[in-house]
Amino acid sequence: MPEITGADVERMTASLFIEPGWRSRGLSKFWTLLILAALIASAGVVGDSTATVIGAMIVAPLMTPILGSALAFVLVDRRHLIRSVLLVVAGSASVIAVGYLVGWIGAPPDDFAGNSQVASRISPHLIDLLAALATGTAGAFALARADVSDALPGVAIAISLVPPLAVTGLLLEVRRFHDAGQAALLFSTNVAAIIGTGITVFLIFQVRAAAQAAGRRVGRLRGTSLASVAALLVLVAVPLTIGTVAVTRDRQLAADAGPAARAWAAGHGWEVESVTARDGRVDITVLGQPPAPDPQGLRRALDTAGAGDAPLLLHVVGGASLSCPPRTGQCAVTTSIGSSNTSS
């Protein structure tokens, strides 16, 4: 592993430590890019545009104070640690506020119910923590090694920082508070992973020794401080583990309910369009012509299939619609129309 020199430490601190004051070029750059990234991400989420959201990831500068917090922690530089943490907190709140404002202006009538950008950020799992740990490691490694710094834009795309915050603001505006909390949890997971892996990489590269050799003042790094960072990672891993277990349970529940639902529908001449499960509830949509099949038969079929403890929401789409061309005086049956029924 190449040795880190004092010059490398100076380059890293110059890149990550943003000096205060509105005349500071680093601070004005941070806030300008952050607000623009928040607007781009919010617009991309509202429009369900993956390309636009990726653009926001590239522009967003939140990675700088987050890694700055990790570097200041390793150097025990309390002044820059407090500044970096405050920038992360204030920047996060600003992105949420921008998302809320954009949602107030242009939230869709369905409250993002069918939005893939929202759906991908409101169900964080352990795999998200694993990805964040790998991405944080890559970011810290690219920063410490000047010869691989070209990888940083790819790291910015890989880690999801501004989009979850924008989703949080958008969902708060439409009063989907639980899902907004899940999006905020995804952001918190990524921040904790970046700080934890950043500290680890900087310690492996012996940044403290290089800083001391260059005459930079370095404080004493206590074991309790390192333990607190490890505890932070464990803290975010707990809800992610719970979410992962819930998703695994729902997948098994849908797999058990599917064959029973299809057999029940076929017996009535109907067709199953979808079988899904979320939060322990089975959602089934069936299509066909009247009369509608008896939902109690489906309930009994699910009980037999091992899904007896799961509530059931049955969407029955049937009947007929009439097509009436102009000036003909005649109408014809063309398509089915929808209704819904529930059974639990």
From TrEMBL:
<feature type="transmembrane region" description="Helical">
    <location>
        <begin position="226"/>
        <end position="247"/>
    </location>
</feature>
<feature type="transmembrane region" description="Helical">
    <location>
        <begin position="30"/>
        <end position="47"/>
    </location>
</feature>
<feature type="transmembrane region" description="Helical">
    <location>
        <begin position="85"/>
        <end position="106"/>
    </location>
</feature>
<feature type="transmembrane region" description="Helical">
    <location>
        <begin position="151"/>
        <end position="172"/>
    </location>
</feature>
<keyword id="KW-1133">Transmembrane helix</keyword>
<dbReference type="InterPro" id="IPR005240">
    <property type="entry name" value="DUF389"/>
</dbReference>
<keyword id="KW-0472">Membrane</keyword>
<protein>
    <recommendedName>
        <fullName>Integral membrane protein</fullName>
    </recommendedName>
</protein>
<keyword id="KW-0812">Transmembrane</keyword>
<feature type="transmembrane region" description="Helical">
    <location>
        <begin position="53"/>
        <end position="76"/>
    </location>
</feature>
<dbReference type="Pfam" id="PF04087">
    <property type="entry name" value="DUF389"/>
</dbReference>
<feature type="transmembrane region" description="Helical">
    <location>
        <begin position="126"/>
        <end position="144"/>
    </location>
</feature>
<feature type="transmembrane region" description="Helical">
    <location>
        <begin position="184"/>
        <end position="205"/>
    </location>
</feature>
